[in-house]
Amino acid sequence: MVTGDGSYIKKINRSLILQKIIEYGMISRADLAKTVGLNKATISVQVADLLDEELIYETQQEHTALGRRPIMLSLNRKAGFALGIDLDAKHITYTLSDLLGYPVLSKDVPLETSDYETILQLVLAEIKEFQLQCADSRYGMVGAVIGIHGTVGKDEKVFFVPQHQWREKDLKADIEKEIDVDIYIENNANLSAFAEKVFNHHDSENLLSIAMYSGMGLGIILDGELLKGYNGYAGEMGHMIIFPGGKQCTCGNRGCWELYASESRMLQEIAVLKNKPDASYAELRNWITEKDPEVCQYIEQFFEYLSIGLNNVINLYNPETLVLNSEILKMLPDALDRIKSHLHSTFNQYRELKLSELGKDACVMGACALAVNRFLEVPELRLSLSAEHLPANLPVS
Question: Of the candidates 340, 357, 358, which has an alpha carbon nearest to the alpha carbon of residue 349?
Answer without folding.
Answer: 340
